[in-house]
Amino acid sequence: MAAEGAKAMRVVIVGGGTAGWMTAAALARLVPAAQAEIVLVESDEIGIVGVGEATLPHIRAFNTRIGIDEADFMRATGATFKLGIEFRDWARIGDSYIHPFGVFGRDTDGVGFHHYLARAGQIERLQDFSLPVVAARGARFAPPADDPESLLSTYGYAYQFDATRYAPYLRVRAEADGAQRIEGRVVAVDRDADGGRVTAVRLADGRAVAGDLFVDCSGFRALLIGDTLREPFEDWSRWLPCDRAVAVPCASQGPLLPYTSAVAMPAGWRWRIPLQHRVGNGYVYSSAHVDDDAARDALLAAIEGPALAEPQLLRFHAGRRPRGWVDNVVAIGLAGGFLEPLESTSIYLIQIAITALVELFPDGAIDPADRDEFNRVLGIEYDRIRDFLILHYHATERDDAPFWTRMRTMEVPDTLARKMALFRARGRVETYREGVFLEPSWIAVYLGQRIVPEGYDQRADAPDAAGLARAVERLHAVTAAAARAMPDHREYIATIGAAA
Amino acid sequence: MNAPIRTIAVVGDGIGAWTAAAALAVRLPGVRVALVPHTARHRAMVDTVGATTPAALPFHVDIGWDWRDALARTGGAIRLGTQVTGRDDYVHAYGAVGQAAGARPFPAVWAAHGIRPFHHYAAGARLGLAAKAPSRDPALADAIFGLVLDPDRYARAVEGYAQHRGVMVPAAPLAEVARGDAGVAALHLADGTHLIADLYVDATGRERRLATPDDAAAWEDWSRWFPYTALTTATAPAEMLLPSLDRMTIADGAITVASHLPDRTIHLRLARAGATDAETLAPGRRQCGWSGNVVAVGEAHVVLPPMQGLPFHWLHTGIDRIVALLPGRDCAAVEVDHYNRTANDEADRLRDLLLAHLPLADDAPETLRDTVVEFARRLRWRQRDGEGFARDDWAQILFGRGIRPAHLPDGGDAEQGRRLLDDIDHRLAAAVAAAPDHRTFLEGLTR
Ligand SMILES: Cc1cc2nc3c(=O)[nH]c(=O)nc-3n(C[C@H](O)[C@H](O)[C@H](O)COP(=O)(O)OP(=O)(O)OC[C@H]3O[C@@H](n4cnc5c(N)ncnc54)[C@H](O)[C@@H]3O)c2cc1C
């Protein structure tokens, strides 16, 4: 609620990519008009990154909050359902596991299912006890159930969609909710006499767009937070050395899979994201370990169907700005930081930043405490995702390429080293209250990366061996049957009227 | 593979020791537990006042002892929370308060439109102010409660229960602790025999009998924030209408707490240091609750003042944590460090909750400052690592202390907001009127 008589804050969003339009749509919908006037500046000349097709389940809450209808959204963006991410060839060539959006088996008496499986000497079968994994492998999908007793409530889902269509889709809503779009290229930035806050951005045609609060959604350019305010960039490439990607869409072959794949490559990894109308592919690599031409050739050789466009080259660095909100500039999206799309976290991070901004939206002057809180929340998220990503690279047995040897032997942050050691000792997961990725995600990746616990929770010794074996087999059968009963993914999309 | 722990020796003789022994014996398959008697130098707070938090209910379920049976056998009562008077007047009752209006959390609705106190919309507070106990009415479903155990009778009962569940008791008490590289090498008993275990549990309270001098010295003192360290205890006859909230008065010079049992009331007074007949109770925690093959429970790790059931809460959650994080026989550093980190996170949040009742000190712990400042600015409350309580526990205390948000979050339409508040009020009023009084409720448990 704005203080009586306070005038609305003019918010200028610079950039109309996914970050810019998500921000515009959310602010226009969630901050009362009396408190904020929303303007978005974008340049058709410059264009958007246009990759970023795989998401986490949190996006559903975002879409719901701004009033998006699922089937309509899926039609408009050619979206498919996503139950998890497959990792192929990561710990060893030939390996494959899925990090599902859901739990494994059934915890009993407060003891995680994987401990019982470890006791039964069958922990390598864990994947078979995740309904979303089994359904995903069979190209099946059904929405989860509400009843917490049901096996069908043990998972969530996200989407895979055409990144170039999401921003325009949001734009329509943002404009309907009162956001105003200005076409133009920003060429200069005006600041206070004392060189502090930003007062306006100047466009190529000479217009000035003034504002009280600026949201930097200019992508890797980081026009305001970087070029203007010079907030440093904390570089994480010593742990995450991939600094380029080549992306190309292709025609799809075979069944429509409800999961994203991340296939390890000699100098990085390759994504495969199935959409309704095509498959998105890309090779994320370390330019120190492979040159651009070789990377492009490797990608083109690996894709399943004819390329539908020219391969596109992207450059980046892993890391973040320690402060995403400085003075009256809030960086959201690639301007604030970048973590490679291995776990589909970029759009999630945009969403977290937007949620924090809405919750901390200034009423009147900007309170420095709001900035600190914003930066604290984002900092925790970035740090925890960083560790999770490094885990995939570091916990490997691969020694077939210099890239993998480097990743396997590098020193990792202490926060990660101790998490890995803890899991290896007894299958325990260091959990936390703030930040994405809960216990099942860590378990999936630890085991998938062949960190096999040496012990298990002693309480898993409680049931008698024969009874435990029977319960395990029953759960296995029930999971398989529940997956088989689900409709085919493509058919389900058609049934709910979500087919493009 | 690192061999599992098969034998555990608990040292102590109070409620903490017997509770730990019983829980470990019941919950850890294949483990034998012995309790080595050692009369503690100080009486632990759980042996003085039996107030628990709601954590006591699942704790008893997990050790296979129905809490109703425990209460009925030992003549205890329930507590829905605490009524605070003195500097401020408020109730902190357990459980969720009010009801969200769509995406708008209840504290925001209340801050914008509420006229009656915040706790007026808490089922537990309304029941408690009427000396009543919950019925099955769904309007009261949010009222959860802890127990008020009779320390003397419960001590005997839990001792009996532990022995019934197979806890062994050697014939002679502890005489000497033999130390080794890993911590304790053996316990020498008064009859010349000795006892060796894979793991030793120090339940000797503030004496910390099993800790090495170094470990015992690594102590973080909290009395600079909580200077009420002079404790005196008195007993008075029970009240006719048995309260279901304990009463706490916070004044500058002293905090008093009344804890209500069916047959007597225990009065505690915590004064700023001074009074000569008082016992000194300095809150704080040891850095390492677990060190080598020794783990401390209760006051041997963290000392909390006898307010809001915190000493029992810490005992129960600490034992749960040993069960949940039990390492192998070698007590590997990676597992023990994890235990200590999570234990200390929790202890620090309990300290914060306790200090939240007092004005925020300039040098207040950072985690507390963050929580209070964020709440006072915008009613933001984020669950931190180690948090054992919920948003509405904090909201009742902070609102109760008169803290109001500087930036009022959007409370929604005034008309609708007031209607929601009135609805909740009426529903609670009707349900409380029909609910049993506390004594009737307790009688119902034995039937
Ligand atoms: C290889 C790769 C793969 C990815 N895969 C995923 C994924 O699977 N899942 C996921 O969640 N995320 C993924 N991401 C991240 C995702 O693409 C981005 O988070 C998302 O697209 C948001 O980008 P953005 O809006 O911040 O920047 P951009 O899309 O770059 O938008 C920047 C905007 O700023 C405007 N602009 C820039 N300069 C000016 C100027 N001077 N004047 C006016 N306007 C200007 C541009 O016109 C554009 O509108 C991936 C990223 C990369 C690089």
UniProtKB/TrEMBL annotation, chain A:
Annotated binding of L-tryptophan, by residue: E343
Residues the record marks as active site: K82
Keyword check for Nuclease: no
SUPFAM superfamilies in the record: FAD/NAD(P)-binding domain (SSF51905)
Molecular functions per Gene Ontology: monooxygenase activity; nucleotide binding
Binding site for FAD: G16, G17, T18, A19, V186, L334, I347
The UniProt record lists the keyword Flavoprotein: yes
Pfam family, one: Trp_halogenase
Chain residues that bind 7-chloro-L-tryptophan: K82
Keywords: FAD, Flavoprotein, Nucleotide-binding
UniProt superkingdom: Bacteria
PANTHER family: FAD-BINDING PROTEIN, FLAVIN-DEPENDENT TRYPTOPHAN HALOGENASE
Protein name: Tryptophan halogenase
Protein species of origin: Sphingomonas ginsenosidimutans
From TrEMBL, chain B:
Gene3D superfamilies: FAD/NAD(P)-binding domain
Stored Pfam families: Trp_halogenase
Family matches, as InterPro entries: FAD/NAD-bd_sf (IPR036188), Flavin-dep_Halogenase_NPB (IPR050816), Flavin_halogenase (IPR006905)
Highest taxon above the source species: Bacteria
GO molecular function (one): monooxygenase activity
Protein name per the record: Tryptophan halogenase
Source organism per UniProt: Sphingomonas ginsenosidimutans
